Amino acid sequence: MANSAKVQTSLPVLLALSAATLTASLGISVASVLLPTLAHSFSATVSNVQWVVLGYLMSVTITIVSAGRLGDLFGHRRVLIWGLVIFSTASIASAMAPSFGVLIASRVAQGFGGAIMIALPISLARDLMGTSRLGAAMGLLGTTSATGTALGPSLGGALLAWGDWRMAFWLLAGIAAAAFILTVTLVPQTARPQGTSWRKMDLPGTLVLAVALVTYGAATSGGVSGIPVSSEVLFGIALITFILFGFIETRMASPLVPMALLRDRRTGAGFAMNVLIATAMMATLVVGPFFLAFSLGLNDALIGLVMAVGPAVAALSGVPAGWLTDRFGAQRVMIMGVMQTLLGLLCLAFLPRYFGVAGYVAALFVLTPAFQMFLAANNTAVLAGATKDESGRLSGLLGLSRNIGLMTGASAMSSLFVIVLGTGEADQASAEEVANAFSITFSAASALALMTLGLAIYGFSSAPRQVTETLG
């Protein structure tokens, strides 16, 4: 009877948490289709208008660990409500922005709210549902995230057709307000942690980590317009600041990222696998369109249609991936997911060369469900042994490691493609040269998946993590 009641009460909780996750995902994808209109409205260059998307993404990446830490210190439900208020307010400010600078500043603030809305639903699911149905919760949150990614461009395009770009931000404000109401009414109150204060926020570590992530993000995106610093120098600065961050964390009484978490075999492997898989998967976004356009000769409309297959399949496969995780265990499903990811990347490397669009779509049907299986199982494995005092921080680190992988993939996968291509420009190469570069790039991505498989086996060869020390 108790288990039945817990299942019934978990459904409205998951509805509220999914609404927050969907809103944060829409914050990225809706804005991407607005860029040409914004460039015209504000007379902005293409490189400048990209910061409407980059500002949000960088803000999420920089603050997501701190967002999780705030949840651990002041209560996950309470901080999630703060995040929804911040996101909604920043969306209204974006909709009413009188200048391009105000719009960018509003998007950065929106990104901080988005970071909270990405990290805290995962930790709340861990707190409120326990471990027995954690996989199902992770799968549903993955589904709603993928749904937001898939719906965003079409919603943004429809709003541009009906009105103007400001309507997209009014829509985000409305959806965030609805998520706020659901959270306040459906998510139960949780006890505020005892003995917490802002002094436990580790401001030195937070600031150094922010510098490291900003310079790394700038390096992976090719530098910053107007600042004469090469990507190589930025990578060097990022490396030095990451090392400095690790040095600071070993000496803080209440560190932002306890080194004990990273030294733990299962947890450390979980973060490393997140980076590797996200790096490999990013190739589908940064290399795939060039192959579809310059090797298969598809027009823009068909490219968009083929590219939408991935998010659509992800939206359908997240919940089954979570069910499999609960049914067969995180270890088995993770290894299955990584093995299928390896197969999917190999299919993507070779099937499209022989079967064209049909081969490309078939490969996505193999690859995308495998990615969802990996995410559900890895998130479950990392969070299963967490206490309430660290689940928010772990959720933030999962999001950070995934974003670092996406940034790395955007740079590394596209650079590898260009190097193999040789000409520097895809439109100057033959269809066969583009196809060859595409195959080699995804073969390299499959090598990353093979490394991930080794890490999965290594990480699960130890006993589950036990918290034996105070993490601050």
Can you characterise this structure?
By secondary structure, this protein is mainly α. The protein has 3 domains: 1-193, MFS general substrate transporter like domains (Growth Hormone, Chain: A, Up-down Bundle), CATH 1.20.1250.20; 203-251; 258-472, Growth Hormone, Chain: A (Up-down Bundle). The chain contains 18 helices and no strands. The chain has helices spanning 2-32, 35-41, 46-49, 51-74, 76-95, 100-129, 134-162, 166-186, 203-220, 231-249, 259-263, 265-286, 288-294, 300-307, 309-328, 330-384, 391-421, 431-459. α4 packs antiparallel against α9. The longest helix is centred in the C-terminal third of the chain and has 55 residues, at 330-384. The protein is globular and about 65 Å long.
Instruction: Tell me the number of structural domains.
Output: 3
CATH hierarchy: architecture of the largest domain? Up-down Bundle
The overall strand count is 0
Shape field: globular
CATH class of the largest domain: Mainly Alpha
- Sheet of most strands: none
Cα(first) to Cα(last) distance is: 37 Å
Count of runs of 4 or more consecutive helical residues? 18
Backbone CA Rg: 21 Å
Helix-strand topology string:
HHHHHHHHHHHHHHHHHH
Mean pLDDT across residues: 84
Low-confidence stretches: 1-9, 466-472
CATH topology of the largest domain: Growth Hormone, Chain: A
- Quick one: CATH superfamily of the largest domain? MFS general substrate transporter like domains
Beta-strand residue fraction? under 5%
Question: Considering DSSP H and I runs of 4 or more, what fraction of the residues is helical?
Answer: over 70%
- Protein structure class: mainly alpha
